[in-house]
Design brief:
11 helices, disordered N terminus, elongated, two-stranded antiparallel ribbon, about 280 residues, two-stranded antiparallel sheet, 4 strands
Length: about 280
């Protein structure tokens, strides 16, 4: 790794985004942070203000990863009580995701993903649009014909004839395209409406009005990700890297492996905390 004096913007595994990175964040924090001071004092040790920490929690939970830029003192803090640190981080996160600021950000995110209803053109709108385009085609072709040299005039003359035929066809209220579209239009409207209602229902399910239900889904995913961890699994070192003796564990996902590395003393208390949190959310 190349060392530089310029701070790098990195993505730190986040305790607050349970779906993808909770255990990564806990693991990194518990290998770095002391546990004898918490809350404001704890944040001061990281070299970050409470306001900045709250902003990181909000953006991480909603966005998927924690921007660790600004945690300038993280690597200088001695290792402490891993269980206490994990529980304090979870408690702090629980408080933040219940704040008005978080709710505001969540609501804005939800609205940004709200599906928009597509309403098919009416037959009248389609016919008018077709006529307009056909007229413009005639005008442009006439202009091109006027500017064309003698060798090209026959070609543009043929194009103009076709353009005028298209205009006549477009202006005919009984042309086959308009007739077919008019016949099928009610079905188009019904299908479009049903599709929108499905999208709206999916949106409401994914982003419920009660933001804590959104949080609950993430918490449950964390519980699913961290169950049945074999904390007693043996490791073997090869070429400076550690591998599981049980090769089946090598195919496990990164979150499972990070939970393993975080250790039983961290994961089990965290799971107890999260399960109680889940039970509180209705």
């Amino acid at each position: 790794m190349t060392h530089t004096t310029t701070p790098k913007k990195i993505i730190l595994p986040a305790v607050i985004y349970f779906t993808t990175t909770l255990m990564l964040f806990i693991y990194l924090l518990l290998c770095s942070f002391t546990s004898n001071k918490f809350a404001d004092e704890f944040l001061k040790q990281l070299g970050i203000s409470k306001t900045a920490a709250d902003e990181k929690i909000t953006s991480s939970f909603l966005g998927g990863s924690l921007d660790a830029y600004g945690l300038k003192n993280a690597k200088n803090i001695a290792l402490g009580n891993r269980k206490a640190v994990a529980l304090e981080l979870l408690a702090y996160t629980k408080k933040q995701v219940s704040s008005a600021a978080f709710v505001k950000e969540y609501t804005a995110m939800k609205e940004s993903y709200k599906p928009k209803e597509y309403i098919p053109q009416t037959p009248e709108e389609m016919r008018a649009e077709g006529i307009k385009a056909a007229k413009e085609g005639v005008v442009k072709t006439e202009e091109s014909l006027k500017k064309a040299d003698a060798s090209m005039k026959p070609i543009f003359q043929k194009v103009l004839e076709d353009a005028k035929k298209n205009l006549v066809f477009s202006e005919d209220p009984n042309n086959k395209h308009i007739v077919a579209y008019t016949k099928n239009y009610p079905g188009f409207v019904k299908s479009s409406r049903e599709n929108f209602e499905r999208q709206l229902a999916d949106w409401e399910k994914k982003y419920p009005t009660n933001h804590l239900l959104y949080v609950k889904v993430r918490l449950q995913e964390f519980m699913n990700e961290t169950k049945d961890i074999d904390f007693g699994a043996e490791l073997v070192s090869k070429n400076g890297k550690k591998y599981f003796v049980n090769r089946a564990y090598e195919s496990k996902g990164n979150r499972w492996k990070m939970a393993f590395r975080a250790g039983k003393e961290v994961v089990e208390p965290a799971r107890e905390f999260v399960q109680k949190w889940i039970d509180e959310i209705n």
